[in-house]
Amino acid sequence: MTGFLKGSATAMITPFCGEDVDFESFGEMIEYQIAGGTDALVVLGTTGEPSTMSEEERIKTLSYAIRKAAGRVKIVAGVGSNDTAKAVRFAGQAAALGADGLLAVTPYYNKCTQRGIAEYYRTICAATDLPVIAYNVPGRTGVNLLPETAEAIADIPNLAGIKDASGNMTQTLDTIRRIRGKCDLYSGEDALNLPILCAGGTAVISVVSNLVPAAVKALTVAVERRQLTAANKLADRLFPLAKACFTEVNPIPVKEGMNLLGFRAGVPRAPLTPLEEKDRELLKDALLAFGMEVKA
User: Could you tell me if 118 and 155 are in contact, meaning their C-beta atoms sit under 8 angstroms apart?
Assistant: First the structure.
């Protein structure tokens, strides 16, 4: 299927206060995204640290986001797992809560074959009527959804698209070529948002847009309107901030970035650690250079 996502989606962080999810702060972040023009919120994706959350916490967090958004933006629920049965269960929970779509990362750690990846997505899609986004991020999962496999699953009726965070533009271009007109491709790599959009990507699923949602949205609009001079200027401004957001593993830097902007993002859950001071200064400088008011 095509047309599920267009424009900018934010891979939301999950703010923690002590051992609990800080729902008040999460609500403020959701309102910040909506005010910035973001089209969709991805909740419980990798950036949201779901692997450190209990099933009860996941349900409460997704439920809260759906209620808070109240239909103003789409809510996409992260449901991926290295256990297909668990991913199917998460998909059912998300559908029951009222999510608009699902994001399923490729099975991690198990390092299954391409056949296994394809069967994983076929099983999830068969278990739900919701649009499903396949998420390829081999640097984190240890497996790579190859263009041939993307082509093999692109005809699944409710496979909405591929979120591509391979970091390999040659592979990305091959994937777009193979799935074009069948399902969409979304940029999952902030540094490559502009070229992926220009190559035919229909949306970005961005980490940086936690910090600057209006600017990331503006980039997608500029490309859609074929205003490439404006798009290049925006991409040039966003690039140092994107680079600063990945000095350490995501979401360590972006959570500290939200703290710097005055939100209560807290710190990542173990085994992730707070941002190193040298990287914090780099991120702070990038925010100031972008014109953001740093409050911490």
Answer: no
